[in-house]
Specification:
Elements: H1 2-35, H2 42-62, H3 68-95, H4 104-125, E1 130-131, E2 139-142, E3 150-153, H5 154-176, H6 178-188, H7 190-195, H8 200-226, E4 228-229, H9 233-248, H10 253-273, H11 279-293
Antiparallel strand pairs: 1-4, 2-3
Helix pairs in contact: 1-5, 1-8, 1-9, 1-10, 2-3, 2-4, 2-8, 2-9, 3-8, 5-6, 5-8, 6-8, 9-10, 9-11, 10-11
InterPro entries: ABC_transp_permease, BCAA_transport_permease
Family: Belongs to the binding-protein-dependent transport system permease family. LivHM subfamily.
Subcellular location: Cell inner membrane
């Protein structure tokens, strides 16, 4: 029974981290699905969302506001607005001017934007770790008191519920809204969508904005979960989310969700049963195995060139 409870605990921890990886990975996979490019500045946008949320929380505390739902809503809205604006700016500055050029050019442009944003936060906020307040405390415990107990915190429940809500809203938006249908059309054939009167520049910008908004949600959730943030906070998470997107099938939104969950569970199980030092080895080893036997990822589809 103790072994089973321990396994369930690691599974809960893995799904918690995997849920946030999935939120970030959607930004990578949406941009790739629309324009066939990787937004390597996406991790930094996620990091800026976390810093924005922290600044909003600190400001509300300074004003004497202590009602938790209001603090969370204001922090989330502020983070989403700032991150979405950053996502829009990255597309206009780093991608639109070089769209249609050789693929190395937008890649280098995105890496340059990533380094710029990272150093901007270094200068503006300092390079040290900053504590993130634990706004949601407490949780549930299962098992006998004199043995190992499985616990799930209210923070983890919040992450699960928020991720589920975001995924549901995104799925409905993509499948039923006018902009969502236009996104699907642009992802299938950018040139034809342009000929049919779809404002492709507007749709591409909307894709960056949506991905950045989801990254901001993940930034707030992981900031509260880990309890601290720093300017490199986005680099590692962005790399893991990119891995999740490739694992699930880059360009596939369900693949990004699945890849994030698998990656999170793999890391948690490795930390729980082997050592935390090996979790990255196992995660990237899993990615290599998947790409060796299924290069398009778990849910990815092979590209078909039209002649």
């Amino acid at each position: 029974m103790q072994d089973l409870l321990y396994f369930i605990q690691q599974l809960i921890n893995g799904l918690t981290i995997g849920s946030t990886y999935a939120l970030i990975a959607i930004g990578y996979t949406m941009v790739y699905g629309i324009i066939g490019m990787i937004n390597f500045a996406h991790g930094e946008i996620y990091m800026i969302g976390a810093y924005t949320a922290l600044i909003a929380i600190t400001g509300l505390a300074a004003l004497g506001i202590a009602w938790l739902p209001l603090i969370l809503i204001v922090a989330l809205v502020c983070a989403m607005i700032v991150s979405s604006s950053m996502g829009w700016a990255v597309e206009r500055v780093a991608y639109r001017p070089v769209r249609g050029k050789h693929r190395l050019i937008p890649l280098i442009s995105a890496i340059g934007m990533s380094i710029f944003l990272q150093n901007y936060v270094h200068l503006a906020q300092g390079s040290r770790n900053i504590g993130f307040p634990a706004l949601i405390e407490g949780g549930f415990r299962f098992g006998a008191e004199d043995s190992f107990q499985t616990s799930i915190s209210y923070m983890q429940v919040t992450i699960f519920i928020t991720t589920l809500i975001c995924m549901t809203i995104l799925s409905l938006f993509i499948s039923r809204s006018r902009i969502g249908r236009a996104c699907r059309a642009v992802s299938q054939d950018l040139g034809m969508a342009n000929l049919l009167g779809i404002d492709t520049n507007r749709i591409i910008s909307a894709t960056f904005v949506i991905g950045a908004a989801l990254a901001a949600v993940a930034g707030l959730l992981l900031g509260m979960y880990y309890g601290s943030i720093d300017p490199l906070f986005g680099f590692i998470a962005g790399l893991k989310a990119f891995t999740a997107a490739v694992l699930g099938g880059i360009g596939s939104i369900p693949g990004a969700m699945l890849g994030g969950l698998i990656l999170g569970v793999a890391e948690s199980m490795t930390s729980g049963y082997l050592s935390g030092e090996y979790k990255d080895v196992v995660s990237f080893g899993l990615l290599i195995l998947i790409l060796l036997f299924k290069p398009t990822g778990l849910l990815g589809k092979p590209e078909v060139e039209k002649i």
